[in-house]
Amino acid sequence: SSKLLYSFPGWHLAVTTLEQAPAVDVVAIGLVSGHIILHNIKFDETLMKFQQDWGPITAISFRTDGHPVMAAGSPIGHIALWDLEEKKLMCQMQDAHSTAIAGMSFVPGEPLLITNGADNAIRVWIFDGPGGVGHVLRCRMGHSAPPTKIRYHGQNGEQILSAGQDGTLQSFSTVHEKFNKSLGRGSINKKKSKKKGLKLDTMALPPITVFASVPQISHSKNGPPKLKAEVKANIQVQLITIFVLYSRCLLESNLVSILIKKFQQSSHEGAIRGVAVDGLNQLIITAGSEGLIKFWKFKTKDLVYSIELSSSPSGILLHRDSGILGVSFDDFSISVLDTETRRIVRTFSGHHGRINDMTFSPDGRWLITSSMDCTIKTWDLPSGCLIDCFLVDSAAVSLTMSPTGDFLASAHVDDLGIYLWSNRSLYSLVSLRPLPADYEPSVVTRLSTCPVQDVDVAGDEETCDKMIEYVSPEQLGEQLVTLSSLPESRWKNLLNLDVIKKRNKPREPPKVPKSAPFFIPTVPGLIPRYIAPEEENDTQTKVVNLGVLAQKSDFYIQLEEALFTNKYMAPLNLLKSLGPSNIEIELRSLAPEGGGSVEVMLSFLRMIGMMLNKKYNFELAQAYLALFLKLHLKILSSEPNLLEEVSKLSMQLEETWIHLQTLFNQSLCVLTYMKSALL
Q1: DSSP state of 543
Q2: For the chain, how are helix, strand and coil distributed in percent, rounded to 5?
Q3: How far is residue 600's CA from residue 645's CA, in Å, rounded to a whole number?
Q4: How much is the CA Rg of the chain, to the nearest whole Å?
Q5: How many Å separate Cα 384 from the centre of its chain?
Q6: What is the DSSP track for 282-337?
Q7: Integer Cα distance of 159 and 220 in angstroms
Q8: Backbone angles phi, psi at 124, to 5 degrees
Q9: How many Cβ atoms sit within 10 Å of the Cβ of residue 122?
């Protein structure tokens, strides 16, 4: 009825939270002053009052497993547990979260408390020890500040390492959240950091900006090794912490720079924008803001080669398997450099903002880039063209491609999440044609910001996925010998059918069933067809129609027609659709003793001649002709017309084979020369 029943006078302070107590008509009220009031709303009476010194009450929850305990949250991440029977503070859980407690709830009938905070973490606490203090049973957490750099780790594509503005390094699993792990925050002295606590820690390292990982060592901890570069003129101090993660070793630094002392005096005149090491640990590649890329020997630290660029580079990325180096510039362009020839092989332009990150596909064919213009573009390196581009509502600050090529992971500005984009070319038909110069990319809404209303994007998807299907012609060129696309089982064993039938002959004759089933009458012939129902005639006759016993097959009829039309495609296509046994039956029936005629046999030989002249279905022509000669050799020797046609076929076969033999010999000679020259 939307009718006001009663108004409480209150306590002249702002109410921050309300929670129903297990007792009937009792409500816990949290105030901005830190007071907690247990009030009976039926009689408007205050039953008890508590006070916390940590600021406003952010959340309240009651245990329902037989213990009269109330938990209260604070804006600094502490949790207070109050004994309702003794009306006193039972214990404190300090730093339960690094930020304010946003919500908490006891599991009904269980000693479990679920809490969440603004630090992007959900924790489950269990109270099974003395004193009523809880400890963490399970935890799911992410970055409390947006991630700045993400990279896939390992070769199975199941782990993503992420460094955030909160200074932590975390490992996220793409399989299940239970495999997520936090490597914590780097510290110069872990013992001092633990004593001072999280918020008063002055030994903590600044947020990570760049890291690299290798799958070798098997531990899961923040290791003690730390490296510190010497302070010299115009050189900033570098700190490196070695983390060890799941049978993998990870090296992270807070700045991209050269870490070896011998490089510091003569490496680059300007700021160093990128460092890369090749897959064999033979070369170190560095990029400087003065527009130079330098190649150094890994062991001797000697300068090997230097390349002058047209603009100042902003970052580099090396695909270690192929030796391809991607270079992004301050003028928003991208170049691809081959480290073997040390030449720039591709240059791309099209971004209208600073390029944030780059990633290669596992096979090195694609280079995917993200920019502050909110676009993510995919460049095809072999063709040198842009093949995909889409807009996002927030610029991607980091990209990484799965080692298996199935997912692209991205981190975005002011966003705590890591987004996975599926590679549709693995499971659907996607056009990889170059995009036109005037292509306008569409905005792809991310999952967490998806609008409520349904958006019809069927038209866009149809346009993007539309691909011209290439239909291969039956013959690419008139001078090329073309084979058919039929499997070998359709023609390879035509000469050995008698051996196969003998081998497959059953040892015992088939047994006649006791009651034979009913069969619908069919028309005699190779293709089974049911007899059409005929009108019943009043008159019956006992004259047998002998024409029914001499049925001609469709192949036979088409060969007869081809004698006059000289068009043999119809009988050839019909023969290609038959199996080996049916092909043998059709060729046997061409002889006069099988119901055929010499004219039809001549038509068949002309069909083979047509196949040899046009040089397509070459292996079928050989197989069909071989079977025909095997079945009708005696008849061919006694008929002059057939002998003349066979001699013509013999000359055609010899010319074609001489041409093929010449091509084979040329290819073998070139191959032998290449093998001997390389050795």
Answers
A1: -
A2: 25, 30, 45
A3: 13
A4: 41
A5: 22
A6: -EEEEEETTTEEEEEETTT--EEEEEE-SS-EEEEEEETTTTEEEEEETTS-EEEE
A7: 14
A8: -110, 120
A9: 16
Which residues, including other chains, have CB under 8 Å from residue 192's CB and lie 6 or more apart?
Answer: 203
Biggest CA-to-CA distance, the chain: 125
Helix (H, G, I), strand (E, B) or coil at 661: helix
- What the block records as the tokens of 621 is 């022509």
330 close to 315: Cβ distance less than 8 angstroms = no
- What was the pLDDT predicted at 240? 45
C-alpha span between 302 and 281 (Å, rounded): 14
Q: Report the candidate in 412, 409, 317, 400 with the shortest Cα–Cα distance to residue 361.
A: 400
Query: Two tokens at 471?
Result: 């239909």
Q: Helices (DSSP H) in 404-510: which residue ranges?
A: 458-465, 497-503
Tokens representing residue 134 in the block = 């809880």
571: Cα separation from own chain's centroid: 47
Question: 390 and 442 in contact (C-beta within 8 Å)?
Answer: yes
Specify the pLDDT at position 191.
Answer: 67
Distance from C-alpha of 113 to C-alpha of 104, rounded to nearest angstrom = 7
| Residue that has been written with the tokens 């995009």 in this structure | 435
Report the distance separating Cα 221 and Cα 445, nearest Å: 37
Q: Which of 473, 502, 468 is nearest to 485 (CA)?
A: 473
Task: State phi, psi for 346 to the nearest 5 degrees.
Answer: -145, 145
The 3-state DSSP class for residue 600 equals helix
71-111: pLDDT as tens digits: 999 999 999 999 999 999 999 998 899 889 999 999 999 99
Q: Any residues with CB less than 8 A from the CB of 562 and at least 6 apart, and which?
A: 568, 570, 571, 603, 606, 607
d(CA 190, CA 243): 13
Q: Would you state the pLDDT for residue 363?
A: 92
DSSP 350: -
Residue 204 DSSP label: B
In single-letter form, the type of residue at position 143 comes to: H
- The C-alpha atoms of residue 206 and residue 208 are separated, in whole angstroms, by 7
Compute the distance between CA of residue 528 and CA of residue 582 in angstroms, rounded to an integer: 13
State the Cα torsion 287-288-291-296 to the nearest 10°. -50
Are the C-beta atoms of residues 112 and 61 closer than 8 Å to each other?
no
- What residues contact 188, with CB distance under 8 A and at least 6 apart? 203, 204, 205, 226, 239
Give the containing element (helix H, strand E) for 640.
helix 640-678
Q: Is the pTM here over 0.85, yes or no? A: no
The whole-number pLDDT of residue 263 equals 53
Stretches in the chain below the pLDDT threshold 70:
189-203, 216-266, 447-470, 512-521, 523, 525-527, 530-550, 677-679
Question: Residue 28 is encoded by which pair of tokens?
Answer: 């816990």
